[in-house]
């Protein structure tokens, strides 16, 4: 047997853990946790187009949490527990050839435990599935031996996938609560997802103005009842803000309560990370090509965002927040040097929501997320003093918190919200 043929059947190990090899792309399935249902559905199709066999996990039973508790120290933050539990539960399901499976996890590289998920996931998998390699999706130089390979073109595609996922999520949430025909918004959402996927497959994916206009026009065509409903913003740690597993299907619950969920877009978090790098240069006197690149990147992304805002306005939708407005809102509450976790972005989003007519807010707080508790819950009193009608409830998400208690807390907030709406 030739050397290269032998190599294809041997896994490299670092510190006792298997490392992803390029040849695995041909025969391995990559499992992705379901953190961002809108965006990951697009990215799943995008990566399949790049030749990767990927699957976004949808298992979200109590067994997922129990597996997380078995394999992760109970002082570790709740999003990590959910992610590990989802991996282990899926691998135990019998659906996958565990000798030809890898798992993928993103890393922001900031001062959050999320940057340390990879070692925790490796240790958890090692207990029952030591042959499964862990891949890191990051842009900060972490886990160099196990980084998911991303070229410039794929990185650019991922950026536009975020913009398109944001647009679909934003339009859907403004349409679903008011649809005159049940299921119409879901059908349009599926059509919009197919539209974006075809753009990536057949070309034209960089013509974002045309794509966003089409997405907006699809949702604008849905007939609405015209009734007035309570608008509820969702802010907090990024996982529980977006993940149905992490927040016990919070958006579905708000819809069932005849509310309009208002979920800030993911690109805000991307811009937040970029701006933090720029702020480091300003606050600490750093001068480097890295900061220059971040300034250029920010100017490009922000320009695209402003163009998208114009399209939303013309299409009759409440526009997403201009990120410069978010920064100005942050300055009223918290210094932009507070960047651990979601840092200054949380109070900035709460202030921006209040200023744009969404005064009722759920601040989703996972167990173990210290930055979220400080920058989220810690800023609530200041925000209520600034905006007299702001109605904020902080909801804890952890393995022992019951869905009933969480929803009861939100219902108390909604009772006040309905009084304000009708008063």
Task: Give a structural overview.
The chain is α/β, with parallel strands linked by helices and 423 residues long. Among the domains are: 3-146, 3-Layer(aba) Sandwich (Rossmann fold), CATH 3.40.50; 230-264 and 321-422, Rossmann fold (3-Layer(aba) Sandwich). The protein contains 17 helices and ten strands. The strands form three sheets. It has a four-stranded parallel sheet. Strands 8-7-9-10 form a four-stranded parallel sheet, with helices on both faces. A two-stranded antiparallel sheet has the order 1-2. It is globular and about 65 Å long. The model is unreliable at 1-9 (pLDDT under 50).
Which strand order does the major sheet show?
4-3-5-6
* Approximate strand percentage: 5-15%
Question: What's the main sheet like?
Answer: 4 strands, parallel
Series of secondary-structure elements, N-terminal to C-terminal = HEEEHEHHEHEHHHEHHEHHHHEHHEH
Structural class given helices, strands, pairing? Answer: alpha/beta
Say what the CATH topology of the domain at 3-146 is.
Answer: Rossmann fold
The gross shape turns out to be globular
Q: What's the total helix number?
A: 17
**What's the number of extended β-strand segments?**
10
Q: Give unreliable regions as ranges.
A: 1-9
CATH level 1 name of the domain at 3-146: Alpha Beta
- The gyration radius over C-alpha positions equals 22 Å
**Nearest-integer average pLDDT:** 91
- State the CATH architecture of the domain at 3-146: 3-Layer(aba) Sandwich
Helix proportion range: 40-55%
Q: What is the distance, rounded to the nearest whole angstrom, between the alpha carbons of the first and last residues?
A: 80 Å
């Amino acid at each position: 047997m030739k050397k290269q043929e032998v190599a294809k059947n041997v896994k490299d190990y670092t510190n006792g853990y298997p490392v992803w090899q390029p040849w695995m792309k041909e025969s391995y399935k990559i499992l992705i946790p379901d953190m961002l249902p809108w965006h990951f559905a697009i990215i799943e199709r995008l990566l399949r187009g790049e030749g990767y066999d990927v699957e976004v996990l949808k298992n979200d039973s109590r067994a997922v949490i129990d597996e997380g508790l078995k394999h992760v120290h109970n002082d570790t933050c709740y999003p990590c527990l959910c992610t590990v539990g989802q991996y282990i539960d899926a691998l135990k399901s019998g659906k996958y050839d565990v000798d030809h499976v890898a798992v993928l996890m993103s890393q922001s590289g900031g001062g959050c435990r999320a940057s340390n998920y990879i070692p925790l996931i490796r240790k958890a998998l090692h207990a029952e599935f030591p042959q499964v390699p862990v891949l890191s999706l990051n842009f900060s130089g972490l886990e160099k031996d196990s980084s998911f390979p991303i070229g410039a073109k794929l990185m650019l595609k991922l950026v536009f996938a975020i913009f398109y996922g944001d647009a679909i999520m934003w339009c859907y949430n403004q349409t679903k609560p008011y649809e005159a025909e049940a299921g119409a918004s879901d059908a349009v959402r599926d059509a919009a997802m197919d539209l974006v996927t075809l753009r990536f497959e057949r070309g034209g994916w960089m013509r974002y103005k045309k794509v966003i206009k089409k997405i907006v026009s699809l949702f604008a065509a849905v007939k609405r009842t015209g009734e007035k409903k309570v608008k509820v913003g969702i802010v907090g740690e990024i996982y529980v803000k977006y993940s149905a597993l992490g927040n016990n299907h919070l958006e579905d619950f708000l819809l069932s309560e005849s509310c309009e969920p208002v979920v800030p877009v993911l690109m805000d978090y991307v811009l937040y990370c970029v701006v933090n790098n720029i702020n480091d240069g300003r606050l600490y006197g750093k001068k480097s090509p890295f900061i220059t690149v971040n300034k250029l990147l920010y100017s490009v992304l922000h320009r695209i965002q402003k163009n998208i805002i114009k399209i939303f306005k013309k299409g009759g939708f409440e526009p997403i927040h201009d990120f410069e407005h978010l920064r100005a809102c942050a300055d009223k509450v918290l210094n932009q040097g507070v960047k651990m976790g979601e840092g200054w972005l949380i109070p900035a989003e709460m202030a921006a929501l209040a200023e744009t007519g969404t005064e009722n807010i759920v601040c989703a707080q996972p167990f173990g997320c210290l930055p979220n508790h400080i920058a989220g819950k810690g800023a609530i009193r200041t925000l209520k003093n600034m905006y007299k009608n702001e109605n904020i409830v902080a909801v804890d998400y952890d393995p022992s918190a019951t869905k009933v208690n969480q929803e009861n807390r939100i219902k108390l907030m909604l009772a006040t919200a309905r009084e304000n709406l009708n008063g």
